[in-house]
Amino acid sequence: MVVVTGSDTHRTIDAVWRIESARLIAGLARIVHDVGLAEELAQDALVAALERWPETGVPDNPGAWLMATAKHRAVDLLRRNKRLEHKLEEIGRDVESRQDGAPGFDAVLDDDAIEDDLLRLVFTACHPVLSTEARVALTLRLLGGLTTGEIARAFLAAEPTVAQRIVRAKRTLAKAEVPFEVPPRAELADRLSSVLEVVYLVFNEGYAATAGDDWMRPALCEEALRLGRVLAGLMPKEAEVHGLVGLMEIQASRTRARTGPSGEPVLLLDQDRARWDRLLIRRGLAALDRAEELTGRPGPYALQAAIAACHARARTPEETDWARIAALYAALARRTPSPVVELNRAAALAMAFGPAVGLELADELAAEPSLKDYHLLPSVRGDLLAKLDRFDEAREEFERAASLTRNERERALLLDRAAACGRATASP
């Protein structure tokens, strides 16, 4: 028993909750077969800890204490529900045979059982019956242990909006009677794709915030990386899981170099590569190697990780293998056809074979309806036009890009580039 007092207790409980909440909710969901109810029971256990631990001290095994307390709450609930009497007998015998749910609750905290439950929780929170926004919010709540307020601040959303999104998500899962299970093999690929999409969406929002005053939100990158690493541990033979982890590790390695002293964006080719995190790069390359070992046909995340690896291996921008990057984007376009992938390929072609080559493809994309309000299309076109000394056209493109972005840091950068084109036009 660890005795702490006052604010130290609350900090300790907060740390324990961050570590244990996902496993706690996962274990309870297996018992009650209802994610929403499992979270309520876990929250009840947290309240009990907040009430008792300041007086009794933090248990030697706080996770076991929380699970035992939550299980007692489940027994009380099941007693009031006649339809679940058979579960009451099973759970009640287990709980009541132990004194006060003391640490040592080994059957509940068996490592294999925990891993199985966590995997079930991942697939439930990311079930395709939910909207993308709901999957992201529920995953961060159940697996990340984030509060509603923290999720709202991370995505610049109103807290009541996020709260309602989470409530509706849990109701949808219950109404659809989504089973708390890992999907059968026949469905695994599609369902795993949904899970990986959620993790990468969280990472991307941290890596390049879509709106607000900050260019990056590193806490979201860290949370996505943590979820990705957990998933890789739970599904070690899934190549795309390792591909996504490799991609995120390598991209995260640039975090310190992506902003200047005042928080302003620093573009890839202007970054101080000495500030790139070599440990994260090594971890990312190892994950990419693992993904490539597991499959002869790399998936979308492994291909993107291979593109990121080309940058990571180049000691200077001039050493970057742009021809390989363009080829990898072409392979990615074949696997997952997308105008955004084609736009990235245009930028790579411009670096490998000259701006006129890249601009030809970018111009073809100008008529693509899905890119109508996508600010990076005029941004890329502006960059290529500037390299061709077509400064008036470039200025217009940068100004259009600035009008479309919702990120204030990015808007300032684009307007600066537009102004530079204006000055170049005025020069004799």
UniProtKB/TrEMBL annotation:
Per the UniProt entry, the signal peptide is none
RNA polymerase sigma factor 70 region 4 type domain boundaries: 123-173
Q: Which InterPro entries match?
A: DUF6596, RNA_pol_sigma-70_dom, RNA_pol_sigma70_r2, RNA_pol_sigma70_r4_t2, RNA_pol_sigma_r2, RNA_pol_sigma_r3/r4-like, WH-like_DNA-bd_sf
Where in the numbering of this chain does the RNA polymerase sigma-70 region domain appear? 24-83
Query: One biological-process term from Gene Ontology?
Result: DNA-templated transcription initiation
Q: Where is the DUF6596 domain?
A: 191-291
Which residues, by range, are in coiled-coil regions?
Answer: 67-94
Family annotation (SUPFAM superfamilies): Sigma2 domain of RNA polymerase sigma factors, Sigma3 and sigma4 domains of RNA polymerase sigma factors
Q: Which GO terms describe its molecular function?
A: DNA binding; sigma factor activity
Name the keywords, alphabetized.
Coiled coil, Sigma factor, Transcription, Transcription regulation
Homology family: Belongs to the sigma-70 factor family. ECF subfamily.
PANTHER family associated with the record:
BLL0085 PROTEIN (PTHR47756:SF1), BLL6612 PROTEIN-RELATED (PTHR47756)
Q: What is this protein called?
A: RNA polymerase sigma factor (Sigma-70 family)
Organism this protein belongs to: Spinactinospora alkalitolerans
